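User: My instructor asked us to take a sequence, write out its structure as tokens, and then describe one feature of it. I'm not sure where to start. Here is the sequence I was given:
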Amino acid sequence: MSLARFADESSSPLRRLDSRVKTVVLLSAVAVASVLSQWYLALALWLAAISLFCVMPFDRRALLKRLIMPMGIAWLVFLSVLFTHGSRLLFTIPLHYFSLDAYQEGLVFGIVLFLRIMAAVTLVAALSFSTPMIDILETLRLCKVPHTVIDIADMMYRYVFIMQDTAFTMRQAQISRLGETVSWLRRVRDTGKVAGGILIRSLDRSTRIYQAMLARGYDEDSHDLCFFTTKVPRRDKLIGLAAGLLLILVVTLNVLSR
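Assistant: Let's start with the prediction itself. The structure tokens for your sequence are:
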């Protein structure tokens, strides 16, 4: 089920925008965010990504859950770069057996990496909150992404929720059998058994699904029927063109600022 369920499709301009335009523009923006070397451009792109949520209703708790883990990873990347990259000493943190030296180059580069990660993740979140996954995958198919990659991504998205339900059911069964009252070592072992059982069931299910697909004539080189039956509206084309020009401007400014 897509995250676009949190609001009615006609409730915001971003949701009304053609899915093909949204997918191409936002994924292109993710690519641009990953190559920026100027912190102010990365910050501007991140703020622009955040502003997309202001034009559509969304579940703030779901957005927080989506961003909190990447933010933690981005923070760890920032710290690792701060204390390992550069030569000009910024400050020193004395510890018991050794000291940590922070460098000026590491501070600048770490900020850029942090902003790049958060901008890319926020753009992907905006795309997932506003566009059904099937539309994203079919747009990638139109962009000549290999059919095998699209099919695998589609099945992964469809059945990850089944794995989640299976894990929840097995966990509840473990709790109902007083699995929480045993020792810590026993709980660790039981958790490993649950994880192994989930993987085995997932492997068996994926094998049965693939065999069923082959029985129905599946061929990775076959051509599917066109998913999109209407043309992209002219207004949406103009919006996509304007957004593309802005991304080109950002890349140009980034190159000229080096």
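For the description part of your assignment, you could build on this observation: Residues 146-224 form one domain. Try explaining in your own words what that tells you about the chain.
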